[in-house]
Amino acid sequence: MNALLGTVGLVVSLAGALAGIAQYAWGIRRRSGTAIHAAGGFVVLVAAGALLSTFAMQRALLTHDFSIAYVAENSSRETPLLYQITGMWSSLAGSILLWALVLSLYLALVLYRSRKREADRSLAWTMLVGLVVAAYFFALMLHSANPFITLAHVPADGQGPNPLLQDYPLVAFHPPMLYLGYVGFTVPFAFGISSLITGRTDQDFARETRYWALVAWVFLTVGIFLGAWWSYRVLGWGGYWAWDPVENSAFLPWLCGTAYIHSALSAKRGGNLRIWNISLLISTFSLTILGTFFTRSGVLQSVHAFSGSKLGPDLIVFFAVVTLASLVLIAWRVPLLRSAGMPALLERDGAYVLNNLLFSAFALVVLIGTTFPLLAQAVTGQVVSVGPPFFNSFTAPLALVMLFGMTVAPYLGVRRTAGAALVDALFVPAVIALVVVLIAVLAGLRDKGVIGAYGLAAFALAGNGKQIIRRLKRGGARSLGSMGGLVAHLGVAIVAVALATSTAFGTRGEIKLTPFGTAYFHGHRFTYDGVATKVTPARTSLLASITIDGSGPYHPAISQFGTNTQVVGTPSVKVGLTEDVFVTLDSPPQTAAGPVLIGVVVEPLVSWLWIGGAVMGLGGGLGVAAALRRRRAASRTRAALAEPDALAIEESA
Amino acid sequence: MAVSVSRDEVVPPLPPKRRHALRWVLGVLALAVVGFAVAAASVRPSSPNAVAPSPLVGKESPALTGHLLSGGSYRLHPAGKYMLVNFFASWCTPCRAETAAFERFLAEAPSHPWGSSVHIVGVTVNDRTSSAQAFVQQLKVTWPVVFDGSGVVGLAWGVSNPPQTFLVAPNGKVVTRIVGQVTAPGLVSLMNLAWSTYG
Amino acid sequence: MRAKLAVLALLAVASFGVYLGVSPSRTTQAQRISYLETIVKCPTCISVSTKDANTASAFALRTFITQMVHQGASNSQIIDQLLATYGPSVLLVPPSSSGGTALAGAGIALVLGIPLGGLLYYRRRGRKPVPEPPEGATSNAGGEPLTGGANRSASERAPGWIRTALGSASLAQKLVGAVGVALILSGGGLLAYGVLAKPSNVLSPSQIVLRLKTGEQLATVGSDTQALQLFSTVLAADPRQPEALAWNGWLLRQAGRKDHSRALLAAGIAQLRQSVAIQPAYLYGRLFYGISLYQDSHDAKGAVQQFRAYLSLSPPKSLTNQVKPTIDGAFAAAKLPAPL
């Protein structure tokens, strides 16, 4: 029943997407607004089909319908309710379903947002491109990643999700957020392709494109930080970012998308910024497909990948087709996109060009590092690994230059700004930065990267903070909407400080404790009060009871989930604003009175990583809110549309 | 220094007669994408349990010297003999089952032409002397067992998690490495294969 | 302005001076150990260095690195020794022999080349004059103009079914029409899907037998990967081939146990179960499923049932001897006397 319902949903969506493509194409060919309007019905149908499939999947998960192979593999009778629901994105086929659902809802939203506008060719092309992508994913599900395959012999109980996916409730938020961002970049991509085809280059369309990119960016940013947080709380080695292929796959589109939301603000579109913008949008989307290939084909080894799948060839072909088609379109439209006006470095558009160059270099370094094992294996057949040492040493200099740039750029005018005026405006932030550097050096810090990060983060905090205060003074609280970018920059600076500090000053070690014994590690006092076994239907845990500096108890554990024989370590963290103390149960006691081995990681300022991420998300949210308000104002007074540049400039880089 | 808010003229597109170096860039990019896609598609998904072949295979075997659990010292000296070097630990469950497989293999060996020229040596890694001794006594291990307390031998052979077994040919070259539990028929097939190659 | 620049320069020089003055000129042993631990991967982990991992193998490598450094070995000596035994994948930065130089070169070229090259390019281009725009070329606000809903000439030339959907009908009627069209298409789609989902690659019976034989041999000598490849080609041709299901399931299950991969384990067990259901008289199917029931599902009773079926199929002695401990264990767990 559920399988049938789900499959019907998939087929309806696929058919709806194909019919919608045909109808939009027909409407474009006939130049018929009515036909284009009517094609919207198919978009709604696609969303309805995806919702039906999702409903069927959730129903199957919640009613333990183990006749569906996916449910039998990713849920069990013992699985708690929350993890039954999250079972939908516990493995491949369900994740693709989530992807398709998010995409079809996005398309329906685009349609809803444009309901009052005249149906024109550019909207039709946008929807058509979106539907092509949607059709691909629905076809993928019906072809090689079907979540509704049934089992001939229905098992009495399922296997339950991967133990790591039922250890911490963040798994309910991180993947959906990530997908909202990841998939969301399909919409600006569709807008971009549409503008290439129709030759639309006006501000109104560009601003709509950027709005959707900003929405996706906020979700992707929050999703990536939630993912880091999840790794930190679950994987048990005290790290949050390992430059793992799966992490890079989310980070690469983020880099291109971030470059785009800056570059799209350019006022004059000199310096070929139109070509930049469209290329960045296309790269962002292509990289989401490529990232899916990395994570789902099993060609790269990852801590997060569960197992290889048959999707590799399908995905790489789609990636190649999308990228090649986009390149051909750009080549065709070069005369329209190109402009001769080259900005000076000390003006706003010059800063955007530099921004694009830096982000592109950053993304290419990450891309080369991620794909190198793949290329090496294809060329030489050797298995190699590329890890943090490579990525850190090549991206850190770029990141430092970016910290500098994001402080100076908000002070640049649309026209060339005099160097003297810049020195004037940035004097106080620069003094603060240099004093921080001096203090750091005097305190005995020797790592150039960390010193640079502290100095430039201080510069960025002071510079962007000063700009925020200035604008607040001038415009009051109402101007808050126009400073999303500045707020996001503050978040980046906070993240930089937290990253540098936790990497440079984190220490790890192991302590051996006998019951009621006390040990000291790095200035912290640990007391061990014994172990207890906790049995619930879902899991059996051996919990150690540890008091850290008199507070607690904290319970690092070793858990075994359901019938799964694999045991996983569950860390416990004493969270603090200045320092986290992270404990793991490395070796359980042999007897009740025996000694226990506790792994300890002391990491300073880790909490600020999450705070910084939240501030970045908040900045993006302010930008989205400002765009929404502007739109409402614009629809009230049509005249406002005639002054696009004034508004774009208020919004900071 | 104030942010000047002014409306700048939009820079127009150029007349199309300019040469477009950019198209060349795009062409190169397109070639790169195709090349990358072909390379990526040609890589087989690494089987989840695939282990990269040991770099030692085909090379002179590393040194194996150490104290025997039964007392005395040991030095690997394969001249004229096939040596099966088995890395194990008392805490490892498959290693326990493996011991029986080696027993059966030794029992079956005499019926094969290579029967008299194959020897086994065990190496315990990441282990305690007492538990290793208990293991050897309990399972009645008959072949010499080297105790690698410092982990130096394991590192020299590139062993990260037991059980792993190396076959060293009479000429001192490493023939193969088996990662994970061995089986008696597997070892017999392996020896047949090695015998037909190395004699 | 000058005064401000002077203050900044003073602060910068002071910091730099202090940095140079206090900075030790030689790296200490502890720094070297820390560096080596950062670039050496924990052999049993993915993406995690020996410094960060808390596995036994990482511990052993940390000990090794510390000992070697204290014995006076150079960084390259230590790295070379690790490369010789573990291969290039033990380093988190590929060694130069495995393309490390190319990677580092590419990294430097990207980090320096893109920003600097881009800026140079823009400086060179920036001096050229901007031509005046032709009238009206500035922007193309709405795309090309469209005929609105009032103009029927387009829809009148449309095929019949689309004309019905678009013509002068009300929006509700159009929606109903669209849904109807989609449902018809869906029906066709379901049908097409059903037809297309039939297996396409065909193997002759003799090919299947040959592949099964070779696969079994490969599996017994431990070449699991090649064996799996063979079995999966058989299964692609005939997804219900019981012998291939049994072996493929068994190998997947073994791999799942080894890698702690729940997904592999589940896939393997499902295939074993299917194999027994399709061909109850296949010796290995019974045996493998029995072992799996006992070891994975801890279902001793079910395992005993499978083992009894297996023993009734008069298995070869050597095979039974190999699995005797497991069979005995299962019977003991089910509180039954050992059958052998």
Give a brief description.
The complex is a heterotrimer of chains A (653), B (199) and C (340). With 653 residues, chain A is an alpha+beta fold. Chain A has 19 helices and ten strands.
Give keywords.
heterotrimer, A: 653 residues, alpha+beta, four-stranded antiparallel β-sheet, 19 helices, 62% helix, C: 340 residues, mainly alpha, Helicase, Ruva Protein, domain 3
Q: How would you describe this protein?
A:
The complex is a heterotrimer of chains A (653), B (199) and C (340). Chain A is an alpha+beta fold. Chain A is 62% helix and 10% strand. Chain A has 3 domains: 1-161, no CATH class; 167-382, no CATH class; 507-606, no CATH class. Chain A is built from 19 helices and 10 strands. In chain A, helix 5 (92-113) crosses helix 7 and helix 13 (348-379) packs antiparallel against helix 14. The longest helix of chain A has 32 residues, at 203-234. Chain B is elongated. Helix content of chain C is 68%, strand content 0%. In chain C, helix 9 packs antiparallel against helix 10, helix 11 packs antiparallel against helix 12 and helix 13 (283-295) packs antiparallel against helix 14 (300-312). At the B-C interface, helix 2, helix 4 and helix 5 of B face helix 3, helix 4, helix 10, helix 11 and helix 15 of C.
List the helices and strands and how they pair.
The complex is a heterotrimer of chains A (653), B (199) and C (340).
Chain A (H helix, E strand, L loop, with lengths): L1 H29 L2 H30 L6 H6 L6 H6 L5 H22 L7 H23 L30 H11 L1 H13 L4 H32 L10 H19 L9 H24 L15 H26 L10 H32 L8 H21 L10 H24 L5 H28 L8 H22 L1 E7 L4 E4 L2 E12 L3 E10 L2 E4 L2 E5 L5 E4 L1 E3 L4 E9 L8 E9 L1 H31 L7 H7 L3
Helix pairs in contact in A: 1-2, 1-6, 2-5, 2-6, 5-6, 5-7, 6-8, 7-9, 8-9, 8-11, 9-10, 9-18, 10-11, 10-13, 11-12, 13-14, 14-16, 15-16, 16-17, 17-18
Chain B lengths: L20 H22 L22 E4 L4 E3 L6 E7 L4 H16 L9 E8 L3 H10 L6 E4 L3 H5 L7 E5 L5 E6 L4 H15 L1
Parallel strand pairs in B: 3-4, 4-5
Antiparallel strand pairs in B: 1-2, 1-5, 3-6, 6-7
Helix pairs in contact in B: 2-5
Chain C lengths: L1 H21 L6 H11 L16 H15 L4 H12 L13 H27 L26 H4 L3 H7 L4 H26 L8 H16 L3 H14 L4 H18 L2 H17 L4 H13 L4 H13 L4 H17 L7
Helix pairs in contact in C: 2-3, 9-10, 9-11, 10-11, 11-12, 11-13, 12-13, 13-14, 14-15
